[in-house]
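Researcher: Structure for this, please.
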Amino acid sequence: MSHDVATPADDNARAASGDSAARGDRSASRLTHAIAHLTGYDDRTFVLRVVQPALVGMIDGTVSTLAPIFAAAISSDSHTALVVGIATALGAGVSMGFSEALSDTGEETGRGSAVARGAITGVATAFGGVFHSLPFIIQDVHTALIVAGVVVGIELFVISWVRYRFLHVPLRNSMVVVTGAGAIVVAIGVLIGGS
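Model: Predicted structure, token format:
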């Protein structure tokens, strides 16, 4: 009767294999790998040069534009909120694009072209702000506010999902933090708009 005896070398090989599998699961989801392959980047470079700048833009565009849009809607009407929302989103896109491009040349950090990152951040910022401005095409401001609230909820979920999928942040934690930030900014807009 033979017994398999585990040697230290076997234990080390098993541990290394387990560590490698865990790292593989965390660092290279199928989606990340597929998109990275299409862009010609490895997974880590794709996250640094594309996902992170886009995420910064999405978060800023979604969250920072809430206060002026909701303040305008509450203090005035739907048309004013629409104009303020689009102007804020586009202005924030330009500002964030230049901020990202000017804050890091990419040479020291390996984050790639400053122009490419700036463009990604700027476009993501503008999209993030424009989407929850569009419900104010609806003339009834109360209806528009409800629809905008739903759109904001979807945007916050998308941001949380991107953080979960590409940065491996637990979805629940991400939802709590992102929603909390959005709620604070909406409250500021409501307080100022109602004053």
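Researcher: Any notable elements?
Model: The chain has one domain: 30-193. The radius of gyration is 22 Å.
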